[in-house]
Amino acid sequence: MAGGRRRRHHFSRIHAFTCGKASFKEEHSLIGGPGFSRKVYCNEPERATESLLSYGDNYVRTTKYTLATFIPKSLFEQFRRVANFYFLVCAILSFFPVSPYSGISNVVPLLVVVAASMVKEFIEDFRRKQQDIEMNNRKVKVHRGDGVFDLSRWRELKVGDVVRVEKDEFFPADLILLASNYDDAICYVETMNLDGETNLKLKQALEGTSKLQEDSNFQNFRAVITCEDPNANLYTFVGSLEFEDQQQPLAPQQLLLRDSKLRNTDFIYGVVIFTGHDTKVMQNATDPPSKRSKIEKRMDKIIYCLFAVLILISLIGSIFFGIKTSDDLENGRMKRWYLRPDDTKIYYDPNSPVVAAILHFLTALMLYGYLIPISLYVSIEIVKVLQSIFINQDVQMYYAETDKPAHARTSNLNEELGQVDTILSDKTGTLTCNSMEFIKCSIAGVAYGRGATEVERALSRRQETALGQELRAKNTGKISESKPSIKGFNFKDERIMNGNWIKEPNANVIQNFLRLLAVCHTAIPEVDEETGKVSYEAESPDEAAFVIAARELGFEFYERTQSTISLRELDPMSGNKTERSYKLLNILEFSSARKRMSVIVRDEEGKLLLLSKGADSVMFERIAKDGREFEENTKQHISEYAESGLRTLILAYRELNEEEYNQFNKEFIEAKNLVSADQEQIVERIVQNIEKDLILLGATAVEDKLQDGVPECIDKLAQAGIKLWVLTGDKMETAINIGFACSLLRQGMKQIIISSDTPETKSLEKMEDKSAAEAAIKSSVIRQLRDAKTILTTSDENFEALALIIDGKSLTHALEDDVKDLFLELAIGCASVICCRSSPKQKALVTRLVKMRTGSTTLAIGDGANDVGMLQEADIGIGISGVEGMQAVMSSDIAIAQFQFLERLLLVHGHWCYRRISSMICYFFYKNITFGFTLFFFEMYASFSGQAAYNDWFLSLFNVFFTSLPVIALGVFDQDVSSKLCLKFPLLYQEGTQNILFSWKRIIGWALNGVVSSAIIFFFCIRTMEHQAFRKGGEVVELEVLGATMYTCVVWVVNCQMALSISYFTYIQHIFIWGSIIFWYIFLLAYGAISPSFSTTAYKVFIEALAPAPSFWFTTLLILIAALLPYFIYASIQMRFFPMYHQMIQWIRKDGQTSDPDYCDMVRQRSIRHTTVGTTARLEASKRLEASKRLEISVHSSASKRLELSNFAASKRSEVISEDR
């Protein structure tokens, strides 16, 4: 028999939900109507085709293109860019007589650029295609008839197919659960890929199909499902199943979604209802928002400016040309005789000067088009892809524990990483590990656990206690040394470890406490057959930590059967382990509304026990009057644990009598089987009646630890001038304590708390008029914000750092249109901002508010599905590839494994990418302006006749071959300072925050440099070559010689300018820069050797004219020095008297002063933003506090001395007076 049954659990007898007994509700009446018309013939997929029902296949495509659409769609994408569209128009016009050059020479560069971009698009889409192929070719067992299940590809599945999915496999499509290896047809499902939640979901089939537990049962299985049409709602489902002439309702409890995983269940059988793009996960798939960096947006503006300059100079030239043309023929005299105005075409016709001017305008638009860099976009794309590869390959951002490197999922935002002003971060799983550790507990009013949490370390540093000094000494070692040997258990207390708890005064309470931890849960044990070691699959990390703690303290849970939980307990009488079983009668499940979980069990002595654990807010009110013996101490310990950043739960129990339990169980079963809209409320009311009069045992405390390196990373980011906001769903106390642990908060920092948890607000919430209550609460929030604004103004005058802490309810009102500006103004003025109890929507709204209203670059970082909105809303979304699924990573722009890697990602890669892209774009515009304006100056010299100064192919290949590779090398390899110095001097990052390297001032400076260089090149060439003999025979230069000489000077000048601009030379840059110059000479030699019908003006111009003439080489050298001299002088003065941050660091590096604290402090003092958070700010604050104390002592000492001297003088005067008397 395939897939024999191993466990037979009757969970319907113990769970609070209605197992297999879904009832028809109001929405089921919609079945068969619009939106609810899908009909599935189970085990007969061919019937859907016969019935003309057209359902899609299970093939999923995430690619942007198909083979048929690639060329048209990618061409459309390329020519959407204004520059590319302009060059396309020029390429078309180049085949008409108005063109100043040949058509083929203009088309080839455009083809090269567009083809390169299309190849890049093809490669990226092909990678997506490979991922699709891998997923679509996964295998699953499908029923092929006669009770036989064969492996089949996912892509081949059809609606109506019956599939068998086995443990730890993904569901290949949306399925309706028919049966499982459990008799009650339940299964556990992990939905991390869908919603980021790590807890397992319990699903159950209908009672009618639950007996189909063997392959052979499906030989004659037939059923018809009618359900809702495909939609995106993950949490609702309406349908009905007709099986054996019975109609049964289907609910979300029977729906298994594609991409979720089967856990803790050997196998399930299911029928396919939605395939491919009809599945709910694909219906939810949305294209990520299109993000463009601020540099790219400014680059577009520069191109528009160049277009304006292009039109302006074309217009000026055309007007001048029209005027000159109208005067060409006067009384039969020809002024510009060489144009033959007496016998000319329309282009130079003196009788039609306006038409000639218009046609000249078209010619000029094409001729001066070289101001626009044709290869700019494709060069930037190539550079960004290579930069992304460097980010992905950085071993210092590789996390060995999970085998995950950094992954730049998009290359569009590399330079944006160097301009981040505000980071908005999730807490759980991002700043913390989301790995719970049992660290402390309170039992019978006694606190156990001697470990120190991260928050306690921070608190001890604040209080400057002896413990703090001891902890600091310990913390100088590696973090990894303090990691617990058992995952989930970091408890140290010899009083109750190793069985010593039996010696404690309240040993019986401790026994009940540990037994409750081992029994009250829904975890499932898995025993390793080789080692015999027990591991646990739990719905949440907290629950796993409790079961592990019970095991380590002597109560090992090792087996769960259909109705029992088995433990190996430490017997306090004998001191030996004994096996005990507890009959599991009912599980009263945890929910966010209940905030507690209970189980009812019968022990071996026949006692009925109700074991319960939950939040203190709901548990203390259920404690009996005679069960509050340890309440005061427990509450004090809970408060201390919360201050230490720990998560707490209260543990309590009671004994039940038979009559009470039987009455409860009868009502409970009836309520579960009730067909009513308010069935859940009735069940909850019955459950509440049994969960009362409890006896308090104690409390647990688990720690969600900070990730390694978080405080140090935050400190470096703060020194870089980056502000950090924490947006978390946790309660305020926990968030504040984590803030202290990572130095976002510190002693002496004034906290502005905007909270709705006040007596005033609570009284308002009890008002009957809810709208009036909301208005009153909103006015209270506004008043708190305005009071805080007054405090902020005062603190600014005293240079005092403030922290803003706001809860979710207050944040709802603070984000309203008429309040959000006040909130943002306050938040921006504070050093730290912590938003507690934030919903996913509020996280996204806060991110949008900061991004839109400040105009600065925002970065959001998170690890869960609840962070997706925030990641997509921010300028840059960083996903942490942690334990909360891949939803955040799949929605992010860049994925990293740990928060600490953000330091290197921003301060090193971000700074380098920003500098490289900025320098690259500035240089691109410089070289094109230099080249383009030589054409304009020649047009002026030639009375705007439309004659090009250069050969057609010289024009076409300038951007593509002779100057493109050096600028790509600049964008990939250049470094102003090393990565080590980037991290040592975080203030260097402020160059990007202030946008120093791509400001309008710098852009205009490079443009003016290009104009000056082109003027020097043109006028020097004209003056040195216009009249004197050029060769030995006395020949003067002709157009082709002048053009080749000018072009040679341009190639030399722009490439040598690159050499002057580079801070970090590699052999690749040497090869590209000097190789481009050498390649120009090789090209001129080879191109000149081709037939003159093709090479035209370049025919043998180098061999016969340029190379033999000494004046050619002398002129090139002279112009090179003259053109670079203005930049050299400016750069020398600027670096000597007005150095930027990176130049100051280069200085001290060159002088060997990078380890000198005085020099380093001198550089750090240039920071424009004072560091107000982080460990550095905390140390500076403590130094200031100590200095003020010393000053007070000094003042007090001086005053005491002055008083003593005054008293001494007074006594002497009195002695003198008495003597005189």
What does this structure look like?
- The chain is α+β, with helices and mostly antiparallel strands and 1221 residues long.
- β23 (564-570) and β24 (577-588) form a beta hairpin.
- The N and C termini lie far apart (128 Å).
- The chain is elongated, with a radius of gyration of 39 Å.
- α21 packs parallel to α23.
- Helices cover 46% and strands 16% of the residues.
- It has a 9-stranded mixed β-sheet with strand order 16-35-34-33-17-29-32-31-30, sandwiched between helices.
- Residues 40-105 form the P-type ATPase N-terminal domain.
Q: How do the strands line up in the largest sheet?
A: 16-35-34-33-17-29-32-31-30
The total of beta strands comes to: 35
Kindly estimate the percentage of residues that lie in beta strands according to DSSP. Answer: 15-25%
Counting DSSP H or I runs of 4 or more residues, the number of helices is 40
Class by SSE composition: alpha+beta
Q: Which spans of ≥5 residues are poorly predicted at pLDDT below 50? A: 1-14, 16-22, 464-482
Alpha carbon gap, first and last residue: 128 Å
Question: Residue share in helices?
Answer: 40-55%
What's the gyration radius in Å?
A: 39 Å
Mean of pLDDT: 81
Q: Per the principal axes of the C-alpha atoms, what is the gross shape?
A: elongated
Largest sheet: 9 strands, mixed
EC number: 7.6.2.1
Cofactor: Mg(2+)
Binding site for Mg(2+): 426, 428, 863, 867
Function: Involved in transport of phospholipids.
